[in-house]
């Protein structure tokens, strides 16, 4: 679906009132959900006394309670009550080969048995993993491994400032670049500023420049107006738009950023934590033929195995990570580049290439997108639709991410629309679909005809609960 069509259909949803499930039917679904997930509820009740909020993971669907999972295989996961789900969360996107891909798991088991988990010293797998990333990604000549996407984003900003000698970082509203202080600004929804900044001193945003997505005029002004205020060191972007494409980029947006970075001698930073090795083995940068100066990678490089992140890029830029004390940027991490993570990276990328995992996951995503749009078309009164960037799908039901912050009732609209989306997700979870935030689905090469059939059946049921209007 083209950018203009996506934006037009989003606007059409926002012009309609939300369409909630009637209270009596919703209560039935909550009862069904609670009845089939008793053990998850027990674990949650105990966890609330030991863990803040009762859950560690910000990917969890926490309303009315988070599911406790037991195991995963292929495109399916099972909770502790034995309920089966078609998994479209995919651990937040890194799973491309499918859960429990045996050739990969056997390699990692061998590493643990033969070499141990970590020594705090260098292993050959660091070199092998770096070579694989460099071989695939056009903008990458050197790689520095870290322990998470958040750490990699932090390092990228530090590299940009050290290399350029400038201060300001342009952040595009609605994008997520980890949870470090200076980038928790206008996350999720553009123009929300420091709405989610509790515990962060305002001074941390002194050199963060917030620009709304696809605002070409504001983008150029950000470069121009900050020339005498320390200058722009870099622009950090999600190449398909904030929240993995929930805020799609205009077709000329990334190319304009590239042009302005060159003109003002700033670095273009692609955050490919989700898009790298999911849109293409060469990332969004190869797919769209736009070469960034720095690339941020996360959990996808180890296929979900822990301690996973990297900042990578041009050789001259990355060299600020090397040198003697006082001349290089400081980055750390005792478990960064441990043998397990590096072996997982090396073998996962090898197997993804050998199995053509990206193309297979994308083919399924295309089929699912078409099928869901055909199903939604049977309810034109709702205006629901789906679009996808390769193996990343966004299904629009209430469009709460896209509410205009200039509207007088913006916050009310966001919260009410999100509540309805959450209610929809309770139904889909209760009937065996696991998705992200009631808006997003990630596919892997193991999704099959049975998964497609189940997905459509659940959505057909959900649509039947919403009164026609």
What do the pLDDT scores average to?
95
Structural class: alpha/beta
Uncertain segments are: none
Query: Outline, from the CA principal axes?
Result: globular
Could you tell me the radius of gyration in angstroms? 22 Å
How many separate domains make up the residues? 2
**Distance, first to last CA:** 26 Å
Let me know the number of strands: 15
Helices and strands in order, then pairings?
Elements lengths: L2 H12 L8 H14 L1 H10 L21 E5 L2 E4 L4 E4 L14 H14 L8 H13 L5 E5 L2 H16 L3 E5 L35 E4 L4 H10 L6 E6 L4 H4 L1 E2 L4 H12 L2 E5 L11 H5 L6 E4 L11 E5 L1 H4 L20 H17 L1 H20 L8 E5 L2 E5 L13 H21 L2 E2 L5 E3 L6 H17 L4
Parallel strand pairs: 3-14, 5-6, 5-7, 7-9, 9-10
Antiparallel strand pairs: 1-2, 2-3, 4-11, 10-11, 12-13, 13-15
Short note summarizing the structure:
The protein is an alpha/beta fold. The protein is built from 15 helices and 15 strands. The strands form 3 sheets. A 7-stranded mixed beta sheet has the order 4-11-10-9-7-5-6, sandwiched between helices. It has a 4-stranded mixed beta sheet with strand order 1-2-3-14. Strands 12-13-15 form a 3-stranded antiparallel beta sheet.
Structural notes for this entry:
It is a single chain. The model has no long low-confidence stretch (mean pLDDT 95). Helix 2 packs across helix 14 (410-430), helix 4 packs antiparallel against helix 12 and helix 7 runs parallel beside helix 9 (253-264). The chain is 40% helix and 14% strand. The chain folds into 2 domains: 3-37 and 356-465, Alpha-Beta Complex (Aspartate Aminotransferase, domain 1); 102-355, 3-Layer(aba) Sandwich (Aspartate Aminotransferase, domain 2), CATH 3.40.640.10. The strands form 3 sheets. Strands 4-11-10-9-7-5-6 form a 7-stranded mixed beta sheet, with helices on both faces. Strands 1-2-3-14 form a 4-stranded mixed beta sheet. Strands 12-13-15 form a 3-stranded antiparallel beta sheet. The protein contains 15 helices and 15 strands. Strand 12 and strand 13 form a beta hairpin. The longest helix has 21 residues, at 410-430. With 469 residues, the chain is of the alpha/beta class.
């Amino acid at each position: 679906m083209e950018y203009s069509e996506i934006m037009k259909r989003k606007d059409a949803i926002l012009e309609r009132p939300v369409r909630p499930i009637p209270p009596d039917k919703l209560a039935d679904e909550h009862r069904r959900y609670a009845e089939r997930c008793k053990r998850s509820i027990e674990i949650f009740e105990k966890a609330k006394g030991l863990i803040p909020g009762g859950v560690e993971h910000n990917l969890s669907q926490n309303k009315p309670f988070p599911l406790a999972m037991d195991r995963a295989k292929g495109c399916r996961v099972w909770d502790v009550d034995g309920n089966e789900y078609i998994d479209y969360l995919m651990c937040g996107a890194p799973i491309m080969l499918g859960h429990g891909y045996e050739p990969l798991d056997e390699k990692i088991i061998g590493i643990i048995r033969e070499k141990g988990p970590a020594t705090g010293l260098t292993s050959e797998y660091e070199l092998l993993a770096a070579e694989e990333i460099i071989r695939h990604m056009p903008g990458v000549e050197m790689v520095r491994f870290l322990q998470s996407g958040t750490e990699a984003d932090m390092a990228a900003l530090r590299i940009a400032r050290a290399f350029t000698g400038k201060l300001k970082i342009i952040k595009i509203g609605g994008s997520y670049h980890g949870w470090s202080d200076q980038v928790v600004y206008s996350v999720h929804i553009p123009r929300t500023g420091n709405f989610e900044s509790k515990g962060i001193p305002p001074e941390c945003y002194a050199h963060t420049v917030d620009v709304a997505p696809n605002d070409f005029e504001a983008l150029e002004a950000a470069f121009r107006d900050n020339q005498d205020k320390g200058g722009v060191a870099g622009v950090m972007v999600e190449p398909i738009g904030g929240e993995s494409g929930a805020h799609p980029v205009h077709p000329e947006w990334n190319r304009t950023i590239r042009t302005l970075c060159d003109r003002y001698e700033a670095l273009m930073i692609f955050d490919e934590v989700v898009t790298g090795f999911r849109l293409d083995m060469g990332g969004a940068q190869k797919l769209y033929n736009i070469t960034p100066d720095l690339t941020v990678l996360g959990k996808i490089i180890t296929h979900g195995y822990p301690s996973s992140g990297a900042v990578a890029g041009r050789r001259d830029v990355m060299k600020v990570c090397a040198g003697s004390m006082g001349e290089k940027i400081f980055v750390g991490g005792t478990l960064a580049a441990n043998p397990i993570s590096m072996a997982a990276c090396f073998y996962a990328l090898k197997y993804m290439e050998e199995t053509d995992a990206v193309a297979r996951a994308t083919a399924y995503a295309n089929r699912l997108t078409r099928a869901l749009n055909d199903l939604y078309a049977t309810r034109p009164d709702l205006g629901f639709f789906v679009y996808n960037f390769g193996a990343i799908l966004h299904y629009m039901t209430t469009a709460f991410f896209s509410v205009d912050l200039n509207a007088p009732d913006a916050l009310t609209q966001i919260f009410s629309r999100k509540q309805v989306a959450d209610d929809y997700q309770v139904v889909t979870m209760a009937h065996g679909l696991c998705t992200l935030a009631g808006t997003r689905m990630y596919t892997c090469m193991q999704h099959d005809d049975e998964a497609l059939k189940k997905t459509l059946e659940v959505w057909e049921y959900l649509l039947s609960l919403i009164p026609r209007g």
